[in-house]
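Please decode residue identities from the backbone states below.
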């Protein structure tokens, strides 16, 4: 698990007219927290994630992980992109263990964890398959396992389910929650989908023009319906999801406590959960 702190982070791209992609971003992410960065295309979500990953340098301010300045990519931060970007000439197993092998890790030190992760993502029977033989959702699961086998303290995800169909996307969201609950990794998740952000995250940070993200504390509600669904508790069954035009006719996942209704249902009670969001 990792603690992330951003203080007055800004990103300016030099050009004839300098482009300020990020401005004055202040954000604290606690160990084991699941934070969603929500906003429209072009608001700087991916730029901020790239700074956290070490792919880009911030022009102003400071970006810290566990008290150390982020200056370059590192195995303490795993990144999952919208496309899994698997090596097509390698099998599922070879893709998953590629990282530790290149790091010179002894086989005995990574084999058991790799097998465990393949079981967690439900691909233990496809270890010898090649990416071309897998569906899009299965390839993305391989990508998640490949990142997690490196034991990152933070998992950075840039719209990882954006290219999937609606039904596969729901299944992948549920899988991600199960992985997070089991491994308790700090997660920063970029999305422009409000439903997805609310379902997955402990805290949603809204980014708007001029590309600032300010968020106060949101306390995870101990009886959050999604936690009960993952733990198999009965009292999460009655949680309801607000219907929108996009939701009409959507097949609900039986393992997530949503139910469709001809009437517009109400949101689950929010008592004990405090959400403060500033739009700047």
């Amino acid at each position: 698990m990792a603690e992330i702190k951003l203080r007055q982070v800004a990103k300016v791209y030099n050009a004839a007219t300098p482009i300020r992609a990020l401005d004055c971003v202040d954000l604290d992410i606690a160990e084991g927290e699941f934070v969603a960065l929500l906003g429209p295309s072009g608001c700087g979500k991916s730029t901020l994630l790239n700074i956290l990953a070490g792919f880009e340098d911030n022009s102003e301010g400071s970006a810290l992980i566990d008290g150390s300045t982020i200056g370059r990519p590192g195995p303490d931060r795993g990144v999952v992109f919208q496309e899994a970007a698997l090596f097509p000439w390698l099998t599922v197993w070879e893709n998953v263990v590629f990282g530790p092998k290149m790091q010179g890790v002894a086989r005995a030190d990574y084999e058991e964890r790799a097998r465990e992760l393949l079981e967690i993502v439900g691909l233990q029977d496809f270890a010898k398959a090649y990416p071309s033989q897998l569906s899009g959702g299965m390839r993305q699961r391989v990508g998640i396992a490949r990142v997690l086998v490196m034991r990152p303290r933070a998992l950075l995800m840039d719209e990882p389910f954006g290219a999937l169909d609606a039904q596969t996307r729901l299944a992948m969201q549920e899988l991600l929650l199960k992985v997070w609950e089991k491994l308790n990794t700090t997660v920063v998740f970029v999305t422009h989908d409000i439903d997805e952000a609310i379902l997955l995250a402990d805290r949603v940070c809204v980014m708007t023009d001029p590309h600032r993200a300010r968020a106060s504390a949101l306390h995870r509600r101990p009886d959050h319906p999604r936690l009960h669904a993952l733990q198999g508790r009965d009292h999460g069954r009655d949680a309801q999801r607000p219907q929108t035009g996009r939701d009409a006719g959507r097949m609900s996942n039986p393992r997530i406590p949503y139910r469709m209704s001809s009437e517009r249902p109400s949101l689950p009670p929010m008592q004990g959960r405090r959400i403060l969001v500033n739009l700047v």
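Observation: The first strand starts at residue 4 and ends at 13.
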